[in-house]
User: Which sequence fits this backbone?
C-alpha cells in the first residue's frame, strides 16, 4: 500500500491477505491484500464513494469463476456479502448480486418458473453473471433481465430496465467501477418437473463436454463470430499442451485446467502460446473471455491447493 486508506473505507468489513486461490475457481494468483466484504448496500456505497473521493483504484469480485489473477493485488477488492434472499412477485424473481448463480437457477426451477434453465451450470454470483451477460445453449441473461440495480463509479444508486445496446455477447457496460447490487428476472410459469428436466439435460451436456472435475475458469477465449474457439484450438493440435500444472484440457480445448499446483506465470504463458498458435494456424486473433487481473508481483511460486470460498 502506498498511502493510507481513508477512515470511512476502513469502517467497511474487510480481511487482509486472502489468497486468490480461495477466491477464484481456477485457483491461481497471489494475495488479495485488502478484501472488503460489505453486508449491506449502504456499506457497498460507502466503499465506492470513499474510493471515488480519494481517487483510489479498486476492483469488484464475484464468485471468481471468470478470473485469472496474476500475482498479488494491492488495490482494494470489493466482494459483496449481502443477505441471501430471493424475492418473488408474480413470475419475477429478484436476488442480491452476491447470491449464488446456480442456486438462483435452482430456486427458479423449484418455484416452477421457467427461463433460467440455461444458468443451471454457470458458477459464480448473480452480479458477475449480469456484468458478463453470462449465457449458454442459446440463451443469455439479457433475455430474462427485467431490471437491475447498480452503483455508478461515483457511488450513485441507479435502478433501471435494460435498454438496447447495454448487453451483448459476454459484454456489458457494467465495468470500470460499476457495481451490480441486485437484479430481477422476468420468468414464465411452467411445469416444475419439465423445468428440472431441462436443467438436468443442460448439466448432462456440460458433464460430457467440459472438464468439470478440474479447477478452471470456464472458457478462456470468446468465440469469434461464427466460430468456436474450442474447435479452433483443438484443430491447432493444442489439446494436452501443458506448462507445469496448467494444461489445455483434452476434453474441451477452450478450457485451461489447473492440475493443482499451477502458477499464474504458467497460465499466462499457456494462454499466450494458445493465442499465438491459433493465430499461426488459422489467422484468427482470440480474445480472452476471462478477466485478467495483473498483480503487483507476478507470483512464480506454486499456490497451495485450496478450495474456493465462493
Ligand atoms: P467473477 O469471475 O468474480 O468476475 C467476472 C467479472 O465480473 C469481473 O470483471 C468482475 O469485476 C465483474 N463482477 C463480479 N461481480 C460484479 C458485480 N457485483 N458488479 C459488477 N461487476 C462484477 N460463463 C458463461 O457465460 N457461460 C457458461 O456456460 C459458463 N460456464 C462456465 C463453466 C465453468 C466450469 C466455469 C468455472 C465458468 C463458466 N463460465 C461460464 C464463466 C463464469 O462462470 C461466468 O462468467 C460468471 O457469470 C462469472 O461470475 P462471477 O461472479 O464468478 O464473476
Ligand atoms: N469443439 C471441438 N473441440 C473442442 C471443443 C469444442 O471441436 O475441444 C466443437 C464442438 O464439437 C462443437 C463446437 O466446437 O461442435 C462448440 O462446442 P461447445 O458446444 O462445447 O460450445 P462452445 O462454443 O465451445 C459455448 C460457450 C460456453 C457454453 C457452451 C454451451 C463461449 C466461449 N463458450 O462453448 O460458455 O457453456 O457454449 O452453450 O461462448 C463460458 O463462457 O465460459 C462457457 C463455458
Assistant:
Amino acid at each position: 500500500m502506498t498511502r493510507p486508506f481513508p477512515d470511512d473505507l476502513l469502517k467497511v468489513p474487510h480481511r487482509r491477505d486472502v489468497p486468490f486461490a480461495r477466491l477464484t475457481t481456477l485457483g491461481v494468483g497471489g494475495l488479495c491484500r485488502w478484501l472488503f466484504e460489505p453486508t449491506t448496500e449502504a456499506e457497498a456505497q460507502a466503499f465506492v464513494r470513499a474510493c471515488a473521493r480519494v481517487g483510489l483504484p479498486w476492483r469488484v469480485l464475484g464468485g471468481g469463476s471468470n478470473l485469472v489473477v496474476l500475482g498479488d493485488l494491492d488495490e482494494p477488492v470489493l466482494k459483496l456479502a449481502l443477505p441471501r434472499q430471493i424475492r418473488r412477485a408474480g413470475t419475477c424473481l429478484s436476488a442480491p448480486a452476491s447470491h449464488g448463480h446456480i442456486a438462483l437457477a435452482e430456486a427458479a426451477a423449484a418455484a416452477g418458473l421457467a427461463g433460467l434453465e440455461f444458468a443451471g451450470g454457470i458458477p459464480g454470483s448473480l452480479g458477475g453473471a449480469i456484468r458478463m451477460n453470462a449465457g449458454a445453449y442459446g440463451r443469455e441473461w439479457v433475455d430474462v433481465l427485467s431490471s437491475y440495480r447498480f452503483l455508478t463509479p461515483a457511488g450513485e444508486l441507479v435502478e433501471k430496465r435494460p435498454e438496447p445496446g447495454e448487453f451483448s455477447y459476454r459484454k456489458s457496460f457494467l465495468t470500470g467501477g460499476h457495481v451490480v447490487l441486485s437484479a430481477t428476472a422476468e420468468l414464465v410459469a411452467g411445469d416444475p418437473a419439465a423445468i428440472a428436466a431441462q436443467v438436468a439435460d443442460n448439466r448432462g451436456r456440460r458433464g460430457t463436454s467440459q472438464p468439470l472435475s478440474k479447477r478452471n475458469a470456464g472458457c478462456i477465449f470468446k468465440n469469434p463470430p461464427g466460430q468456436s474457439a474450442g474447435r479452433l484450438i483443438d484443430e491447432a493440435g493444442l489439446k494436452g499442451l501443458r506448462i507445469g500444472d496448467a494444461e489445455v484440457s483434452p476434453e474441451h480445448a477452450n478450457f485451461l485446467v489447473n492440475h493443482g499446483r499451477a502458477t499464474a506465470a504458467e497460465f499466462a504463458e499457456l494462454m499466450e502460446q494458445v493465442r499465438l498458435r491459433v493465430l499461426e494456424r488459422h489467422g484468427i486473433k482470440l480474445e480472452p473471455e476471462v478477466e485478467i487481473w495483473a498483480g503487483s508481483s507476478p507470483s512464480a511460486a506454486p499456490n497451495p491447493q485450496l478450495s474456493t470460498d465462493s
Notes: The pocket of EPU (ligand 2) is lined by residues 136-137, 209, 218-219, 222-223, 228-231, 234, 252-254, 289 (CB under 6 Å). The radius of gyration is 19 Å. The chain has a mean pLDDT of 94.
